[in-house]
Amino acid sequence: MRLIKKLLLILLVVLVGIQFIPTKRNQNQQISESDISKTFTLPAEIQTIFKNSCYDCHSNNTNYPWYNKIKPVSWLLENHIKKGKKELNFSEFGSYSKRKQKNKLKSIKNQVIDDEMPMFTYTLIHKKAKLTESDKKLIKNWAVRLMDSIK
Amino acid sequence: MKKTIYVLVLSALFLTACKNDKKQTEPSSGNKQSKEMNIKEADGHDHGDHDHDATMGENSSKEKRNIDATTQKNNATSTIIDSYLQIKNALVNDNKDEAAKGGNMMLTAFSNFDMSKLSETQHKEYMEIIEDAKEQAEHIIKSPIDHQREHFENLSVDINDLISLLGTSKTLYQNKCPMAGEGKGAIWLSEYKEIKNPFFGSKMIKCGSVQKQIN
């Protein structure tokens, strides 16, 4: 019994302790020069969809939920964002090679149509991020048009 | 007993708090890396104006695609092409695991490639091609077969461009399947003339035609 008490206390100490380790937040005041909106003219509706459903993990600006203040949850999120940005970062889209831009647009379109993005675990918490059928169609048409225009 | 626990908690807090300050004053490793990259870039371009070089690269990449690769013999690209053909043949046989193996082979081939023999303009385009090709290979390693095929479409364009850029000593056939690429058509490369379709595998093994012979 004493041992369990001790272990629980140690756990508490650790939990309190890790709250003091800073996490670098994925937030930037300025829109970067290589942002997709500076490289291409994005239709307003596309921009809104991206903001609500994609930018949390695919840009340099995350709109953090309240539970991000608690570790180790925030570490999980941070890791998740890191992976998302490696795959596709709208804040750096303009600096991608044309080859990469085209392939990314193709993947955006396919992932959205196949309901693979936004991820189920994300839309579970962010109800607003769920894409409607008309959202998906808008993204598809936009991506195809832009893909064809990049030579 | 209680007292010692409080002491422990407090000291733990202080320790982590001290760590914080240190971390914030250190420059992040990401910055360091980008600095190194800048230096490298500056070295590479010291014979001319940077912007000028960049635009030249874009123009020349378009032209290069039209150059007939039959004139350039190059052994250096062989292992990269071998890994590509491994993926291709695996997809022809509907074999996901063998395709993933090919993806790994390709990553190794890229990391073993000797870039020191590339000219400045070649280097720039080579980097763009392999950055993309690596990503396609990574996805081929971890994806189900329909995704592997999607990425193989992109990869085929990359490898075709790589051959236009650097050449090959292999005899290859550039084939086109009009039904792949969502009906827009897509190309692939093969080491034999007979059509065996990697985009559809056994479902449509004969779909496609030879467009051009390389070497």
List the helices and strands and how they pair.
The complex is a heterodimer of chains A (151) and B (215).
Chain A: H1 2-18, H2 36-39, H3 44-53, H4 55-58, H5 73-87, H6 98-113, H7 120-125, H8 133-149
Helix pairs in contact in A: 6-8
Chain B: H1 2-25, H2 29-44, H3 50-66, H4 78-92, H5 96-112, H6 120-142, H7 145-166, E1 172-177, E2 186-190, E3 209-214
Antiparallel strand pairs in B: 1-2, 1-3
Please give a handful of descriptors for the protein shown.
A: 8 helices; 59% helix; elongated; B: 215 residues; mainly alpha; Four Helix Bundle (Hemerythrin (Met), subunit A); 3-stranded antiparallel sheet; 3 strands
Brief characterization of the structure:
The complex is a heterodimer of chains A (151) and B (215). With 151 residues, chain A is mainly α.
Number of strands of chain B: 3
Biggest interface, which chains? A-B, 20 and 26 residues
Provide the succession of SSEs of chain A: HHHHHHHH
Distance separating the two termini of chain A: 71 Å
Share of helix among residues of chain B? 55-70%
The end-to-end span of chain B amounts to 82 Å
Structural class by sheet pairing and helices of chain A = mainly alpha
Secondary structural class of chain B = mainly alpha
Shape of chain B: globular
**How many H/I helical runs of chain B?**
7
What's the helix-strand series of chain B?
HHHHHHHEEE
Largest sheet of chain B: 3 strands, antiparallel
Oligomeric organization of the protein chains: heterodimer
Helix content of chain A: 55-70%
**Poorly predicted residue ranges of chain A:** none
Percentage beta strand of chain B: 5-15%
Taken together, the total number of domains of chain A comes to: 1
- Given as residue ranges, the uncertain stretches of chain B (5+ residues, pLDDT < 50) are 7-71
Shape of chain A: elongated
Strand content of chain A: under 5%
